[in-house]
Amino acid sequence: MKHFFTLLSIGVLLNSFTIFSSIDEVINAMKVGNSTEIAKYFDNTVEINLPEKSNSYSKSQAELVLKDFFTFSGVNFFEVIHKGENGGSQYCIGTLVTKSGIYRTTIFMKKKLDRQLVQGIKFEIK
């Protein structure tokens, strides 16, 4: 019985580390403005809300929109304000500081087929 509880505890611990691994990878890519790395976690369609345009894009289109935004804006850094998990979904709220302005940024991910995938990214001018 002790063996069962030990294995169960190890499983829960390992699972808690992997719960945030996907969002942490997206956050790390956001810090340096790496759209290619973020796109690895995109779902088939992704909602991207920018101050000048908002739309649902295919995975490849969303990567290009994000790349253009990062290139035009010139990412300096990204600071996490809050991140969490709710019912299998993950989210992160942070501040993206660029050469062209400061943006409150929200990243929303949802679990699909045992993987966390980005459903939407929202950039609002602060």
Word description of this protein:
The protein has 126 residues and is α+β, with helices and mostly antiparallel strands. The chain has a single domain (2-125), classed as Roll (Nuclear Transport Factor 2, Chain: A). Helices cover 40% and strands 45% of the residues. It is built from 4 helices and 6 strands. It has helices at residues 2-19, 21-32, 35-39, 59-73, and strands spanning 42-49, 54-58, 75-86, 89-98, 102-112, 115-125. The chain has a 6-stranded mixed β-sheet, covered by helices on one side. β3 and β4 form a beta hairpin. The longest helix is centred in the first third of the chain and has 18 residues, at 2-19. The chain is globular, with a radius of gyration of 16 Å. Residues 4-19 have low confidence and may be disordered.
Topology overview:
Layout: H1 2-19, H2 21-32, H3 35-39, E1 42-49, E2 54-58, H4 59-73, E3 75-86, E4 89-98, E5 102-112, E6 115-125
Parallel strand pairs: 1-6
Antiparallel strand pairs: 1-2, 3-4, 4-5, 5-6
